[in-house]
Amino acid sequence: SSLLKKLRDKTGLATLNLPTESQWQFAACAGATSTTRYLDPDGREYGIADIARYKTNAGKYSDGMGDADNGTACVGTYKANAFGLYDMIGNVLEDCLDPYVPFASLKTYYEEKGYAFPLVNHEGISYLDAKALNGGDHRITSRGGGYENTSLSLWFRDWSYQNYAGENPPCARGFRFCVTCE
Questions:
Q1: pTM
Q2: What long-range pairs does 15-18 form, CB within 8 A, spacing at least 24?
């Protein structure tokens, strides 16, 4: 009865899912091995203010014009990355499929499993392994940062509890889907 199951049934896309954290990272970096440069579709380097809505740029669009509410921006307001994807950084936190584990524990987990690090295991970490590393808590991994954040990078990570129901959510949240191509 989940939204993903309904979408899979309606579209016939059996592999439709949220991206793992590793898949999200690959898409955000547009396949680049450097995680500190933001490249446009022609390979030119962007500044983060050109591609991301965040607190430090005060909600200004890439053309320098501001808006009235200083909240989230419409998709496409800022420039796309080299894969043509918009808002991979900034605007809203994007939920990932694999559960959150603190970075140091995640690094140890991957190295003990024999995986290269950082984050090249596209399967992600299992729910049970993550829960054990988090002292029994189930946390959702979010990437990209939101308009409320003061600084962002391709490595920005955050988390929330699965059933967060507070009056004031910590940050604007969103998601995108991915499909395995075969």
A1: 0.76
A2: 15/179, 15/180, 15/182, 16/177, 16/178, 16/179, 17/97, 17/177, 17/178, 17/179, 18/95, 18/96, 18/97, 18/175, 18/176, 18/177, 18/178
Task: Give the β-pairing of 93-99 and 173-174.
Answer: parallel
Tell me the per-residue pLDDT of 140-176, one tens digit each, with 9 for 90 and over. 788 888 877 777 777 777 777 655 554 445 567 788 8
**DSSP per-residue string spanning 19-50:** PPHHHHHHHHTTT-S-SS-EE-TTSPEEPHHH
Check if the beta carbon of residue 122 is closer than 8 Å to that of residue 20: yes
Which residue type, as a one-letter code, is found at position 109? Y
- In this structure, what are the phi and psi dihedrals at residue 117, rounded to the nearest 5 degrees? -130, 140
Query: For residues 54 and 151, is the Cβ–Cβ distance under 8 A?
Result: yes
